[in-house]
Known about the structure:
The protein is mostly helical. The chain has a domain of 73 residues. It is built from 25 helices and no strands. The longest helix has 36 residues. The chain is rod-shaped and about 120 Å long. The termini are far apart.
Amino acid sequence: MGANLFTLYRIDPPGGNLSRKGISMSRRFHALLTGALVLAVCAAHGDATFDQLLQSGKYKEAIEYADQKIPAGSRTADTWVKLAQANEKLGLTEKALACYMVSWRMNPKDYESLLGAARIYNKLKQYDEALSKAKAALDQKFTGEASWEYARACIALKRPADAKKALEKVIETDPGNLVANRELGHIYFDDKQYSQAVPLLKKAYEAKKDPEVAFKIGQCYVETGSASSAVPYLKKAIEQKPTMYDAGLQLARAYHNMGKHLAAASEYDRIQGKIKLSAVDYYNMAVSFEEAGKKNEAIDTYRKAISQFGSSKQDEAILARLKVGRTDLENKKYTQSLTQFRFIVGADPKAHAVPDIYFLLADAYMGTKNSSKAIESLEKAIELDKSNIEAYARLADLYRSNNMHDKAKKTYQTMMSLRPDDPNVYLILGEYSLKAKQYSTALEHFTKATTLKKSADA
Length: 458
């Protein structure tokens, strides 16, 4: 229209006056220009009325007014955004999306259009579209609102790593956003960033007593070594949901770490068979049973731990095998005890974890009438510690009982030459003789130890 207006008049050749036709055309131009100005004023007035209706929360009236007074062809991108927001407030989701998309097509970089479309797509569970629009909105303006829509889409699409940064921005701009606190807390929890997860999850739990959140807070405390802080949350989770056996497991672990073995044993017993336990859990359960005086349950559980550990050589696996091996040895189940002791020697040939393992191995071999293997075991003990008096004494006895008299004599001589005037040597010999039920020999050694001690004190 503007181009036509400026062609409605002409300037006559030199003389400078308009022709009659020119005067007539000039009047027409003036009339059209005046009409255009009137329309512009009316449009401006219409926008003001439209905005006032929106600000007053009269969304339905605002939409009706726009339909009547603001023709689609004259609406700006901003007007379409406002119509979208009005439809959104009325719950007319699809109409809102249509308006946002019209605005976006008019201006593909309009932040409000992109943000609104992302929000609607999330509501419609069209998360790929939501993610695309939210990312585009963030490219225009990095805000908490756009970050939230981006994070929501990422969470739904199971992309927690992408959601994390967005949620951090949301909480930075809106610390009171409980959903953002909860979701970021869950992400930190899943990433094993337990210290960061706790304050966020606690804020979410204060707003809504969700047993799942209480459980995660409790586990965070267990994992960070604050077992006593974990207990109240884990107990609340179990009170709200007794079948939450994961919480029961964490509670048992917390009690175990606190040294409350009776409570730990009780909780382990409650959840046993209802949740899969790790090898270390079985080991800790066995320790708790043992400390609570439930020896039979402890040994049975140590056996379960061994089964779970398999060929593992970690400390708990070795100690579980030691407990079971000693018990089998005491019960004269020599072959079974050999299984455990051989494994320990294979895992720790220098006997760092179990210093007396070669003595135990020798006893088990003696139980199976395998003297040669028992001798090898004691020789190995001496090889590792050439000042081990008890090993010499036991080896000498074995040599003697197997008619290896020369070796027996040499071993006794070596033993006595180590520390001939040390009363502790004779005390060790006396204690060994007692274990071997050689009572008269034990008395001789204890007497000698006493005599040497008196001489040293004089």
